């Protein structure tokens, strides 16, 4: 910034508002970490203490041994991995069909498909539970993997917008070379939408990893619990060990933080391009 250049009051006010908003967003996360290092006597002190005294690092190993977190982490990782893979595969195929393959009623079908995004999840919980019960999938991971992996209207919409931006000449050239639609999808479309696939995969990963409602509805055996559901078991009917819960929560968000640090560029681009593609 050049010396002598005046700083507008509105710009100062904007930065103050942004800093305050950033603090509001990060404060719960900082409080979680602080509480994970406290003993129970410090959790509900009034006024609250941000810095634990003394620091109790033992909460972390205690939280991991109090519950079968090793199994829960395995469950969460493989469920999330399968759902993300299925989402990328099925959503990209459906997006390609809606974007490039012309068939009777495609636009109407796509609108109806998007309309499902306006239906609250609470409306479909009971019918979906009955379907899972008829299939014998209650208390199995299939009830979590299959519906989430095979249907994601947002993913189809996002990828369709990217695929529509691919020039038709590339597809026509592939047809002249004898490629069928499946070959075009695999060899032409997928390589060109890798940024969109990466962004969508990250969104899907974070949503499934943090998912709580579906495991709560369908799972009842502790050995099949995911990490968010197992954390809920620290909350008892008469007593909640908040120190261990906060320690377990802090550990559980490490994979999400790692994914964000590694792929923050794709996340930001995905958010920006979602709004810019028409």
Task: Reconstruct the topology from this structure.
Elements (H helix, E strand, L loop, with lengths): L8 H28 L3 H4 L15 H8 L2 H32 L5 H10 L5 H15 L6 H9 L2 H12 L3 H9 L4 H12 L1 H16 L3 H6 L8 H6 L9 H11 L1 H23 L2
Keywords: Cell membrane, Membrane, Transmembrane, Transmembrane helix, Transport
Family: Belongs to the binding-protein-dependent transport system permease family.
Membrane topology: Multi-pass membrane protein
Please tag this protein with its features.
0% strand; MetI-like fold; mainly alpha; globular; 278 residues
Description:
- The model has no long low-confidence stretch (mean pLDDT 85).
- By secondary structure, the protein is mainly alpha-helical.
- Helix 3 packs across helix 14, helix 4 packs parallel to helix 7 (142-150) and helix 4 runs antiparallel to helix 11 (194-209).
- The chain has a domain at 67-233: MetI-like (MetI-like fold, Orthogonal Bundle), CATH 1.10.3720.10.
- The two termini are 36 Å apart.
- It contains 15 helices and no strands.
- The chain is globular, with a radius of gyration of 24 Å.
- Helices cover 72% and strands 0% of the residues.
- The protein has helices spanning 9-36, 40-43, 59-66, 69-100, 106-115, 121-135, 142-150, 153-164, 168-176, 181-192, 194-209, 213-218, 227-232, 242-252, 254-276.
Topology, number of strands:
0
Helix share, percent: over 70%
- What is Rg? 24 Å
Q: In CATH terms, what is the fold-level topology of the domain at 67-233?
A: MetI-like fold
Tally of DSSP helical segments: 15
Major sheet attributes: none
Q: Which stretches are poorly predicted, pLDDT < 50 over at least 5 residues?
A: none
Assign the CATH class of the domain at 67-233: Mainly Alpha
What is the general shape?
A: globular
Which architecture of the domain at 67-233 per CATH? Answer: Orthogonal Bundle
CATH superfamily of the domain at 67-233: MetI-like
Quote the beta fraction. Answer: under 5%
**Rounded mean pLDDT score:** 85
Family: Belongs to the binding-protein-dependent transport system permease family.
InterPro entries: MetI-like, MetI-like_sf
Protein name: Sugar ABC transporter permease
Keywords: Cell membrane, Membrane, Transmembrane, Transmembrane helix, Transport
